[in-house]
What does this fold into?
Amino acid sequence: MLIGLLVYSNNLFIFISIRIYQIFILFFLLAKIISMKENFTIRNIRNDDLHKVTNWAKLEGFAPGIDDISIYKNTDKQGVWVGCLNNNPVGSIACVKYNSSYGFLGLFIVRKEYRNRGFGVKLWKHGLNYLKDIDCIGLEAAPIRINDYQKWGFKKSSVTNRWKLYGSKNLPKLNFYVDSFSEFRVVPGDQISSEAVILYDTQREPSPRPHFLNDWLKNSFGLVKAIVDKNGMCHGFGRIRPCILVDDQKGWRIGPLLADTPPLAELLIRKLVGDLDDEILLDCSGLNPYANYLLSNLGFHEISKTFRMYKGAQPPTPMNQVYGLACLELG
It folds into this structure.
């Protein structure tokens, strides 16, 4: 009886061991199949991706301007990518080099149904590696992502407020500022030289961006206005462009918006808004000490905020003449 019990126990042990081995093999094969199915690759964005990525940005509430991403692609032809699962685009990131000293990271999106699978980390590492030789990298962070970016060496610099105006009917009928503008005039963008605008921008932005700005201001979507004096010198400029809201409604975004003084910034805003009655958005750095006061008195309401963060030596440029950022994706 004892021998029979020993034989039974030995057979049971062998049986259990075989089962464990079979389960191990099954899990190994299953993992192999899953890994074969999840072939994740990263490639440069193509023209046939632009509509798709624009739609992702819309769903995230970015309110992308029509044709914005095409300009990002052209600013740095190697710096905008999509992540693909089995050749199907599921995420994007833009890491644009303005020059050897300054780059910007944005358009970092992974479609919701593909999150928490490591694809975002792979895109992020790919982008940072592309910018590894840049002295300073900037980005705009949602409040809930600040801690994540700090782990990668980014430091919080300032708040960026998004403002909304519900159409021209909500602009005060009388100018908030009563300054006289007899020495200035507002002209369409095509009546001032690109060189004059680029020079004005270069003296007020963290880094020169002539290629981006030239494409941005000459894009066929939207309207550009500039303020010039009697000698044709630039004293401010801005662009308003159509954008796509989450509900697929048409809206507008102002940016960039730069001006010597708050009264000139108001003048530009009124000329850009005109008689538009759609939702109008404007993103403004909290480093401008005059902007909040001006915008709130012109009928704008603050609706959200992000935070500008930098990795590396932060550009020392003052922002007190910048009333609107061109876009949050490229700074």
Summary: The longest strand covers residues 155-166.
